[in-house]
Amino acid sequence: VTLRSLGESLRACGPDAPTLPDRPNILVAGCGTGREAMSLARLAPDATVTAIELSDASLAVARTRCAGQANLRLLRHDLHAVAELGQRFDYIVCSGVLHHLLDPEAGWAALVGVLAPSGAMQVALYSRIARLSVAAARMRLGALMREPVSDDLIREARRRLIAAPVPGVTNSRDFFSTAGVHDLLFHVHEDCFDVPRIEQAIDTLGLQLLRFGLPTPEDAARYREMAPHDPLHRDLAAWHAYEIRHPSTFGAMYKMTLARAS
């Protein structure tokens, strides 16, 4: 797989999508245990990939996973201070991070501040609507949610939810592992988004939406039927209407590609 694959994914966003340079500078903001950073470094072997993470435990795993990947460097760094790296990035990926910040838009703005003028950004955010089922599961667990998190606590939470299932939680992929349940239910802080909040952030940050992603071909077909006027997946009002009609669509996350507004 070559860098052309990444470029093609951008070209699929429309004729006004930016073109990456031959040797792009890529940032993964909040790389966790390094899976996405490693994939990008392999996808774009001519790129320089910088992956930042604040958790020492996650970085330890990432450094083991990514050992030997010459075009990838891993740094312990706060994304709020990303400007201190002194670089501009042609492509920025921030997946599943911003909604865990105390001020997600401030973190997003910090990333926009280091985006190259002709760069692109991929952002993934929790959907407030899709995660209503998570809120229901947390309510069902009651006082258990206030206890210190441990593997035994997570197993007890699973037992209770298996006994009283919550659709969208107990049938999700994350429910079938201890780490998955921790990620699904036991984050310390979440500040989820909806489409109107995304639209406001895009306008405030001086961005333009290049493409809104859909998780399955079936979703794509349904969206085409509902919004045939939007082949490039850019109509945020249509996206909001689609999610209201199909509230579980973004149960994983919203995923969107953006660039600086022209």
What does this entry look like structurally?
This protein is α/β, with parallel strands linked by helices and 262 residues long. Helix content is 37%, strand content 18%. The protein has a 7-stranded mixed β-sheet with strand order 3-2-1-4-5-7-6, with helices on both faces. β1 (25-29), α2 (35-43) and β2 form a beta-alpha-beta unit.
Task: Summarize the structure in short.
The chain has helices spanning 3-11, 35-43, 56-65, 104-112, 132-141, 151-163, 178-185, 195-204, 217-226, 236-245, and strands at residues 25-29, 48-53, 72-76, 89-95, 115-125, 207-212, 254-260. It is an alpha/beta fold and 262 residues long.
Keywords, please?
262 residues
What fraction of residues sit in β-strands? 15-25%
Task: Give the N-to-C terminal Cα separation.
Answer: 31 Å
Shape, principal axes of CA atoms: globular
- Order of helices and strands, N to C? HEHEHEEHEHHHHEHHE
Taking all residues together, what is the mean pLDDT? 94
- Number of strand segments: 7
Report the major sheet: 7 strands, mixed
Can you give the helix content as a percent range? 25-40%
Any low-confidence stretches, pLDDT <50, length ≥5?
Answer: none
